[in-house]
UniProtKB/TrEMBL annotation:
This is Insulinase family protein. Gene3D superfamilies: Metalloenzyme, LuxS/M16 peptidase-like. Belongs to the peptidase M16 family. The keyword Hydrolase applies. Residues 36-176 form the Peptidase M16 N-terminal domain. Residues 190-367 form the Peptidase M16 C-terminal domain. It comes from Flavobacterium cheonhonense.
Length: 441
């Protein structure tokens, strides 16, 4: 009883903290279609200016993969009013930082400045959108940068091809079947005109959301937004193609040889629904239950108690259209990949036939309350969440209400969703092994 009271007390404290951190925001549209979200946080004298574009690797031509990620680099080359090589100098000389990242579904750019440089951040992002310089020297330069990134982060990274191999084997029609880094051969073959056409199609105000968060004067910020972004012409409306995959009804077997590893890994992956669905959020909780930390079910059983694996885990790789629920393990000693899959399946079958304990359920609730607070603990986190919930989920206020979805998930739902998606006939088994020549060295 005492432990239950302590757990309940912790939950109430976290719930109170989460409620206190409700994110206030204002949103509106410019006539050119740019969606604007403003969040004033006077607690620290910083401001983040960010733009998220609804373009990712899934929007690419199958013969020109890697374009979305390439633009993440290319659009730092300069603009008509920012000379080549000056972008980062301007940012750092004004006490700021900046970065960008790309996924299958979107591309995100941002600058963080002291709040007295709000106007500078807005001008720079408007320049990126209105006056980018896309020429051959920039393309050639960034081509080499991207190739080096691929060598470091993918080609020479142990287990660096894991997600790509899962996606390649689980998707036959959907563009999720290739990785955002794309093909270097495709980038080499692309013409300057193809890069310029990609920019013209996707980098438009009506395909983007601008978020300004931090210590800002709302009226002044709106005036600057109108000044810098208002004159940008609306782009041609983009017609997004819908890709569907037939359900997986029989096990898929695959093998990949990685020259960068010495220990094999076995992967079990299941295709799951859009991250916008309630089911996807239940699967998030299932992955947390199975493999969040060393006290989780899989780690405690397979690594600690039975010592059958060096590592074991699970995660829900969520995306706008589909997701992949991925389990993995690295067998040790005389144990085989089949042994690990059998042990993992035993835990899944338990979830499918029995309710998880009240104690484990309470632990999950505490974790998600804490995650909610942490996700909005900085203006950078708030800005990206606001942009993501608008662009990919279609509901900005999920920044405040998504936690209610997690709070409402029941033990019965966890059981039923495990039963619905995590079955042997619905999955890929990938043997991720050392390359033969490497193994013999």
């Amino acid at each position: 009883m005492k432990k239950s009271l302590i757990a309940l007390s912790s939950l109430l404290m976290l719930g109170g903290t989460a409620h206190a951190q409700k994110v206030a925001f204002e949103e509106y549209d410019l006539p050119n279609g740019l969606h604007v979200i403003l969040h004033n946080d006077p607690s620290a004298p910083v401001v983040i200016t960010s733009v998220m574009y609804h373009v990712g690797s899934k929007d690419e031509n199958p013969e020109r993969t890697g374009f979305a990620h390439f633009f993440e680099h290319l659009l730092f080359e300069g603009t008509e009013n920012i000379k080549r090589g000056e972008w980062f100098k301007i940012v750092t000389s004004n006490g700021g930082t900046n970065n960008a990242n790309t996924s299958e579904d979107r591309t995100y750019y941002f600058e963080v400045f002291p709040s007295n440089n709000t106007e500078l951040g807005l001008w720079m992002e408007s320049e990126r959108l209105m006056h980018p310089v896309i020429n051959q020297i920039g393309v050639d330069t960034q081509n080499e940068v991207v190739k080096e990134e691929k060598r470091l982060r993918v080609d020479n990274q142990p287990y660096g091809q894991l997600i790509a191999e899962v996606k390649k084997n689980m998707f036959k029609n959907h563009p999720y079947r290739w990785a955002p880094i794309g093909s270097m051969a495709h980038l080499d073959a692309a013409t300057l005109e193809e890069f310029q056409a990609f920019n013209k199609k996707f980098y438009t105000p009506n395909n983007a959301v601008l978020v300004v968060a931090g210590q800002i004067d709302m009226a002044q910020t709106k005036a600057w937004i109108e000044k810098y972004f208002g004159p940008i012409p609306r782009g041609v409306e983009i017609k997004k193609e819908t890709f569907t995959e037939a359900p997986i009804t029989e096990p898929i077997k695959a093998r990949y040889e990685d020259p960068n590893i010495q220990k094999e890994m076995v992967v079990a992956a299941y295709r799951t629904p859009s991250m916008k669905t309630r089911d996807a959020r239940v699967l998030d909780m299932i992955s947390t239950y199975l493999s969040n930390g060393k006290s989780s079910k899989l780690y405690k059983k397979i690594v600690d108690d039975k010592k059958m694996a060096l590592q074991v885990g699970a995660f829900n790789y969520t995306q706008e259209d589909y997701g992949q629920y991925i389990l993995y393990g690295m067998p040790q000693g005389e144990n085989t990949s089949a042994d690990l899959i059998r042990e993992i399946d035993e835990e899944i079958v338990k979830m499918q036939n029995e309710l998880i304990s009240e104690k484990d359920f309470q632990k999950l609730q505490n974790i998600y309350e804490s995650n909610y607070v942490d996700s909005n603990a900085s203006v950078e986190g708030v800005a990206e969440n606001l942009a993501t919930f608008y662009l990919l989920y279609g509901d900005v206020n999920l920044i405040n209400t998504e936690i209610e979805i997690f709070r409402s998930i029941t033990r019965e739902e966890i059981r039923d969703i495990a039963k619905k998606y995590l079955n042997p006939n619905q999955r890929l088994i990938l043997d991720y092994v050392p390359a033969k020549d490497k193994a013999q060295n």
